[in-house]
Amino acid sequence: MGTNEEKPKIMACDFEINGNVKKEAFELFAAAQAKILGLRGYIMKVADDKYNGQLEGEGKVIEKFQTLIKSAAEYVSAIKDFIIKNMKVIQEYTYSTFEVKT
Which residues form the Acylphosphatase-like domain (predicted)? Predict the structure, then answer.
């Protein structure tokens, strides 16, 4: 049988979250979820109701992160959009962890 299975590709993307969420609690929640899933990158508040960031990890894990954030009970009514943009394959990670940028 085939033992030379390809390891999952590392994907990178930009993301944008729009919604009226409390900054500190939401950033800590997003960072904790990303770290649990093994994602790398960052999240940063850019306006009262908007966050931008980058994610690096397996494509299916990035999708899982998006689903977790959108379905979190305390944020489900506050989050209007979670948009993933510029998804591409990268050869290696550029971030060592997931962080909250200020």
Answer: 12-102
Instruction: Provide the CATH topology of domain 10-101.
Output: Alpha-Beta Plaits (3.30.70)
Using pLDDT thresholds of 50, 70 and 90, give the confidence band for residue 4.
Answer: low
Mean pLDDT of 91-97: 97
Q: Which two tokens stand for residue 47?
A: 């306006």
Strand 98-101 to 79-90 pairing = unpaired
What letter would DSSP give residue 95?
-
Q: What residue spans define the domains of the chain?
A: 10-101
Closest CA to 53 of 77, 18, 91: 18
Closest CA to 79 of 42, 54, 37, 51: 51
Say if residues 55 and 62 touch (Cβ distance below 8 Å). yes
> Full-prediction pTM beyond 0.85?
yes
Helix (H, G, I), strand (E, B) or coil at 31: helix
